[in-house]
Amino acid sequence: MREEFWDTTPHYGGQKEIWDALRAAAEADLSLAQPIVDSAGIIVSNSDMTLCYDERGAKYELPKYVLSEPTNLIWEE
Protein backbone atom coordinates (compact mmCIF):
# COMPACT_ATOMS: atom_id res chain seq x y z
CA MET A 1 0.00 0.00 0.00
CA ARG A 2 2.87 2.36 0.73
CA GLU A 3 4.43 1.99 -2.68
CA GLU A 4 1.05 2.43 -4.33
CA PHE A 5 0.44 5.63 -2.37
CA TRP A 6 3.83 7.14 -3.24
CA ASP A 7 3.45 6.10 -6.90
CA THR A 8 0.12 7.91 -7.14
CA THR A 9 0.96 11.13 -5.24
CA PRO A 10 1.15 13.24 -8.43
CA HIS A 11 -2.60 12.69 -8.81
CA TYR A 12 -3.24 14.33 -5.44
CA GLY A 13 -1.85 17.67 -6.63
CA GLY A 14 1.00 19.68 -5.21
CA GLN A 15 4.61 19.67 -6.30
CA LYS A 16 6.62 16.54 -6.99
CA GLU A 17 9.59 17.94 -5.05
CA ILE A 18 7.44 18.32 -1.93
CA TRP A 19 6.05 14.78 -2.27
CA ASP A 20 9.62 13.50 -2.66
CA ALA A 21 10.71 15.36 0.47
CA LEU A 22 7.70 14.06 2.41
CA ARG A 23 8.53 10.52 1.37
CA ALA A 24 12.16 10.96 2.36
CA ALA A 25 11.10 12.35 5.74
CA ALA A 26 8.54 9.57 6.30
CA GLU A 27 11.14 6.91 5.58
CA ALA A 28 13.98 8.57 7.53
CA ASP A 29 14.93 8.37 11.18
CA LEU A 30 13.20 10.93 13.33
CA SER A 31 16.43 12.91 13.72
CA LEU A 32 16.65 13.34 9.93
CA ALA A 33 12.96 13.87 9.21
CA GLN A 34 12.80 17.38 10.69
CA PRO A 35 15.76 18.76 8.69
CA ILE A 36 14.30 17.26 5.49
CA VAL A 37 10.93 18.90 6.12
CA ASP A 38 12.53 22.22 7.07
CA SER A 39 14.82 22.36 4.04
CA ALA A 40 11.88 21.75 1.70
CA GLY A 41 9.84 24.54 3.28
CA ILE A 42 7.10 22.19 4.42
CA ILE A 43 4.72 23.32 7.13
CA VAL A 44 3.62 20.40 9.30
CA SER A 45 0.14 21.03 10.74
CA ASN A 46 -0.28 17.80 12.72
CA SER A 47 2.30 16.38 15.07
CA ASP A 48 2.10 13.03 13.28
CA MET A 49 2.80 14.61 9.83
CA THR A 50 -0.54 13.49 8.36
CA LEU A 51 -1.35 17.05 7.27
CA CYS A 52 1.25 19.31 5.69
CA TYR A 53 1.38 22.39 3.49
CA ASP A 54 4.01 23.81 1.19
CA GLU A 55 5.02 27.47 1.12
CA ARG A 56 2.39 28.18 -1.54
CA GLY A 57 -0.39 26.79 0.64
CA ALA A 58 -0.90 23.50 -1.23
CA LYS A 59 -2.20 20.76 1.05
CA TYR A 60 -0.51 17.36 1.41
CA GLU A 61 -2.29 14.61 3.32
CA LEU A 62 -0.40 11.48 4.31
CA PRO A 63 -2.14 8.33 5.50
CA LYS A 64 -0.84 6.92 8.77
CA TYR A 65 0.24 3.69 7.09
CA VAL A 66 3.04 5.49 5.23
CA LEU A 67 4.31 7.07 8.45
CA SER A 68 4.70 4.05 10.71
CA GLU A 69 5.80 0.46 10.53
CA PRO A 70 3.01 -2.12 10.44
CA THR A 71 2.35 -3.82 13.76
CA ASN A 72 0.27 -6.73 12.50
CA LEU A 73 2.87 -8.45 10.32
CA ILE A 74 5.29 -11.26 11.07
CA TRP A 75 8.77 -10.51 9.78
CA GLU A 76 10.65 -13.42 8.27
CA GLU A 77 14.42 -13.49 8.25
Automatic annotation (TrEMBL):
This is DC-UbP/UBTD2 N-terminal domain-containing protein. Residues 1-74 form the DC-UbP/UBTD2 N-terminal domain. The lineage of its organism: Eukaryota, Viridiplantae, Streptophyta, Embryophyta, Tracheophyta. InterPro entries: DC-UbP/UBTD2_N (IPR032752), DC-UbP/UBTD2_N_sf (IPR038169), UBTD1/2 (IPR039869).
